[in-house]
Design a protein that fits this description.
Largest sheet: none
Number of strands: 0
Shape: elongated
Radius of gyration: 31 Å
Helix content: over 70%
CATH architecture of one domain: Alpha Horseshoe
Oligomer: single chain
CATH class of one domain: Mainly Alpha
Order of helices and strands: HHHHHHHHHHHHHHHHHHHHHHHHHHH
Strand content: under 5%
CATH topology of one domain: Serine Threonine Protein Phosphatase 5, Tetratricopeptide repeat
Structural class: mainly alpha
Length: 488
């Protein structure tokens, strides 16, 4: 999520309103294929409306209008129709109207206008570039690539080459064609505005990182920092590379701290710096970064989720539950996983009824997910309400017959109810479906111990200790069984 947001920010920098699709204006800049807000577009296009139109509608001056998105779309559509009517010989007019058709979902009309624009200007690379942009957006990949190739073959200006290589590079990147994307971005470096080189270097680094060419990726990210050392995003992206790709958390921290020195209130960078500390298992530092992110932007829910997760790893379940609660409050449509996470905290705090409420909500949101039912059974067991627990475990097993944990918990619940035969039936099944799940061996050892079968119990605990060598209580239990088996 964090990376996608940063990429979209870069794309916004590099593909501004002056993109490949030309505006309806002489030598004018081009609106992006995805129209900006009505106010921004009006500011861009107002000077290109005929004098008559200005006289007829002086209130349309940018400083005066405050339109809803729907009103803006209607106005822009009307302007596009007028552009074609007043200048039927201008390909830019048809590109403008085609863009509005696409925005309104009228794709056939859009491409009819774009085709006509090419007919009007068969030697203008902008006409082909405009059609390529919309073809790519519509999934017409072959047509888009043909038009970009055609645009480049017409000896365009450096500015147009910049737009074509950038758009085609982003196209390849979105299709996970990273070799082709890196090639386009490297070509774009010859033509891009020097002030925007850093963005192209970052995209190039992303492609190399995806290809596993980490040396080249690091070089590209470093070039971005060199080109624009005062841009916090450059440092952030280099930190992202060290954090997620290289797992070099100390280097990542240096980059994040430099980014934050430039943008101390950036909750996005603060969150990513916290994730880096979490990956390095420096939990207190992670909490500090996430707390700063919340202070910088108290309404961004992800910061609460990340801090809650960190508190959970630290065993601080009360503040973790509070953060999960805030996350849920800020989420329009909470998911089952959100309630499962908070329910786990409540369970650890001994608040079993609250945990059961959360797991019940989770099961309602995802009725085919076995995990809420398994947790419902577990929390009912902790309340010693075994008769309620058993059906929940059975429901979990019906949804996931390979859950060794569910079979183990069901078997142990039968043991607690005093039915050792049922207990062994389910514990044997637990070990069958999940032989690496250590807890089933300890559970079965307890049953065997209660039956006086110490050798069997000891064999199970030997297996448990092999699977969980750091479990001190397990070793103690195993040693007690060894003594009992020796005295039997």
């Amino acid at each position: 999520m964090i990376k996608r947001k940063m990429i979209s920010m870069l794309a916004a920098c590099l593909l501004s309103a002056a993109a490949i699709a030309p505006a309806f204006a002489e030598g004018g800049a081009a609106p992006s294929a995805k129209p900006a807000g009505a106010q921004e577009v009006l500011e861009r296009l107002y000077t290109h409306i005929s004098e008559d139109a200005k006289a007829e509608a002086p209130s349309l001056k940018p400083a005066a209008v405050r339109l809803t998105p729907e009103q803006g779309k209607k106005l822009l559509s009307a302007m596009a129709e007028r552009a074609v009517k007043e200048h039927p010989d201008r390909f830019e007019a048809y590109v403008f109207r085609g863009a509005m058709y696409y925005t309104n979902g009228e794709k056939e009309k859009c491409f009819a206008d774009l085709d006509h624009a090419v007919t009007l200007a068969p030697k203008n690379p902008l006409a082909y570039g405009s059609r390529a942009e919309f073809s790519a957006r519509d999934g017409r990949d072959k047509e888009a690539l043909q038009d970009w190739d055609k645009a480049l073959s017409l000896n365009p200006t450096d500015e147009v080459k910049d737009k074509v290589y950038m758009q085609r590079g982003l196209f390849h990147m979105s299709r996970k064609q990273y070799e082709a994307a890196a090639s386009d971005f490297k070509n774009d470096l010859k033509y891009v505005n020097p002030k925007l080189r850093f963005g192209v270097q970052i995209f190039t680094g992303d492609c190399y990182a995806k290809l596993g060419k980490n040396g080249e990726a690091e070089k590209s990210y470093r070039e971005a920092v060199k080109d624009n050392p005062k841009n916090p995003l450059c440092w952030d992206m280099l930190g992202h590379f060290y954090n997620f790709t290289m797992k070099q958390h100390d280097k990542a921290k240096e980059c994040y701290d430099k980014a934050l020195a430039l943008a101390p209130k950036s909750d996005m960078i603060l969150r990513e710096a916290g994730v880096n500390e979490l990956g390095a298992k420096r939990m207190d530092r992670a909490v500090t970064y996430f707390t700063r992110a919340i202070e910088a932007n108290p309404t961004h829910r992800l910061s609460y989720m990340l801090r809650g997760t960190t508190y959970g790893v630290m065993g601080k379940y009360e503040p973790a539950a509070e953060d999960y609660t805030k996350y849920i409050e800020l989420t329009k449509k909470p998911k089952a996983e959100d309630y499962i996470l908070r329910g786990g905290c409540y369970s650890k705090l001994g608040l079993y009824d609250k945990a059961i409420q959360d797991y019940t909500k989770a099961s309602g949101l995802e009725p085919e997910n076995y995990r809420p039912y398994e947790s419902l059974g577990y929390n009912c067991s902790l309340k010693k309400d075994y008769d309620r627990a058993i059906p929940w475990y059975e429901k979990a097993i019906a949804l996931n017959p390979k859950s060794g944990e569910a079979y183990n918990n069901l078997g142990y619940t039968w043991f607690l109810k005093g039915n050792k035969d049922k207990a062994l039936e389910y514990l044997n099944k637990a070990i069958e479906v999940s032989p690496a799940y250590a807890e089933s061996y300890r559970s079965r050892a307890e049953v065997y111990e209660s039956m006086g079968e110490f050798d069997k119990a000891l064999a199970d605990m030997d297996h448990f200790v092999t699977l969980s060598p750091k479990d001190a209580k397990g070793r103690e239990f195993r040693n007690r069984l060894a003594e009992k088996a020796g005295h039997a």
